[in-house]
Amino acid sequence: MRRFCALISRTTKRSSDEINFLRKSVALGSASSAQTTSSETTKRSFSTNNTPAVDENLVPVFVDGREVHVQKGVTVLQACEHAGVHVPRFCYHPRLSIAGNCRMCLVEVEKSPKPVASCAMPVMPNMNIKTTTDLVKKAREGVMEFLLINHPLDCPICDQGGECELQDQSMIFGSDRSRFTEGKRAVGDKELGPLVKTVMTRCIHCTRCVRFATEVAGVQELGVTGRGGQAEIGTYVSKLLSSELSGNVIDLCPVGALTSKPFAFTARSWELKPTETIDVLDGLGSSIRVDSKGTEVMRITPRLHEGVNEEWISDKARFSYDGLKRQRLDAPYAKNPKTNKLEKVTWETALEIVGEQLSKADPRNLRAVAGKLADCESIVALKDVMTSLGCVNFEVEGVNADAVNVDSRSNYIMNSNIVGVEDADVVLMVGADVRLEAPVLNARLRRANVAGGVKMATLGHHGDLTYPVENLGTEASIINDLLSGKHAFSETLKNAKNPCVIVGSAVLNRPDCAQLLKSLHQLSDQFGVVTNDWNGFNVLQASGGTTGALDLGFVSSKNKHISENDGLKVVYNLGSETISSYDSEPGKKFVIYQGHHGDVGAAGADVVLPGAAYTEKDATYVNTEGRAQRALACVAPPGLARADWKILRAVSEFAMVPLKYNTIEQCRERLAEVSPTFNAIDEVEPSLWLNGASYAHLAGGTPNVAAKGGAGKKNQRCDCFRLRTVNDERRELLHDRRDYASERDHGEMFQG
Fold first, then answer.
1. Is 476 exposed, middle or buried, given 0-12, 13-18 or 19+ CB atoms closer than 10 A?
2. Residue 568 CB neighbours (<10 A)
3. pLDDT tens sequence across 565-612
4. What are the backbone angles phi and psi of residue 224, rounded to the nearest 5°?
5. By the 8 A CB rule, do 542 and 505 touch?
6. Rounded to the nearest 5°, which phi and psi values hold at 175?
7. 3-state DSSP call for residue 648?
8. Would you say 467 and 218 are in contact if contact means Cβ atoms under 8 Å apart?
């Protein structure tokens, strides 16, 4: 007790640091009397007319004797970070509410009788903050000693070893001995499901997981029960985590209380090779880090990307690597005509069969299908090969390309960008279950609704979105009621400043897709969804390969034709597992499947060519907002599998239509020729808004050409365009965007 009182009493005395600070204050001010007290000198040093003018929203503070200017309302911890001084913490997280549980962030503030929790203390003008004094060091050492009282010595068997914040901070700020001789507390483990493993004895009650589940994921399934030494983190009643973002609590946990159950006891962090790449299993293209060991992917964790996924990823992106190890295609297969079963063959044999079938088939009876996970290099290579053979029948899995006009990107991307949805004040979701299709985007919408008061409405079937929504119904005719003003929600859209419409990927696969999109375009024009400085018309794609395929014009020509006598002859399936589109065509078909898993597509094929998964090749993908992104190879493909674009390069030789590019760099130059999207990686290219002209032919009337533009916010590099007439629209599309899809319809593509 005497030692503690002595430490507190030091705060009332002038230290050498304070004396130096006061001398600096005198030097900064105008001429002052030498007999002026230290407090008056400090006050005058900031009120003198010689001091340069600063922003009214900034306040001056001193961190370890260094003056910095920070925004009003920020915490002491944030001011220290701004000054480049790291303050240890366990409970604080910039994307969660402030809890102040751990007390590890204690700092000394001048004139404060005791250390303060920097994460919860707002800054005041001229505040003098000290982070390296003996008082601060002693306080942090005491806090660390308390945290380690009941923490088990599990480091040799803990999966968090090597990445544990408690390990790191105890080494830096902890003591070399403990005064605690009692028995340690033990807590029973909780069953949270097949993804999150719990060892609750290691928990330090930072409540990061509780705040994430409640505030970000929107499921109030975790909480604290009990008081004092009996406090525990749990689910109140025995139940499993139901959130699609539950795996993020693994990254948030600063100790080994919550770890990955599939990754448990498989590898140490220092044994893994990290590779920064992207996820393609949903339309967002979240930034991820793939950790591999040898030729096997061991785990997937998120990377920070403010414009896409912030620092969260969905459970599908995090744990789907398990499927990369099973049912893989590792060798070419060809169907034996005698047994009618697939048998392993050499690459040369498989390519000879494929080349023969492609070269001898009638071009009218060729079809190419691009799967949801196909990369842009393989799509453009397949399109070049098939077009050289005279094929005009192209299809993107899950998209009714006959109804989606790819001449303008605004028809099939998120025009407001992923970040821009938070700028809306009214959001109408049509045929979209955002929580299942894009959980990270759903977390943004929840934040906009809860924190920003954005009004949400849905049209179609969906589950619990974790925030209050107004369900307008499930009938498509409701769109006409909105247009006519009969529906009550019409007034809400009319009064909105930045209304936003999110169209789900299921709408693009409906038979009446074209009519629905036409009505939604009319709704966008009527209610100001698209204006000169705002474009709130968004299409949410369900996978990472769809937008890139549409950007490359992988759709059928307007003059497509299939012979009615014998139907399709040859189908080249690039990773699509939806075979109903060509399986229903009349006549016997020869199906070539190129992919990485032996699933439905491979089972119905005559020749199987093993490709590489998204973690096994350098590739380019385009996310749902039109952002071109690069994926890097993390491990080698299994067995004889090869990168998809290389397989298609070899196929072109055997089909007697050799491609003109031999390296991936040359292939990417070809991508940039077809679409300027691929010139700028990780940036959103501008898109044109045709104001309903794309679907005017459905009504048989003259399209409305009144100019309304806007492809997003200016800080997202999206410019606004004003179109004049239909002819000008077509001319600008062909000239500025190099719309090769339209050139293809006129027979001008891939010549020379």
1. middle
2. 24
3. 456 689 999 999 887 767 766 567 899 999 999 988 899 899 999 999
4. -110, 130
5. yes
6. -95, 170
7. helix
8. yes
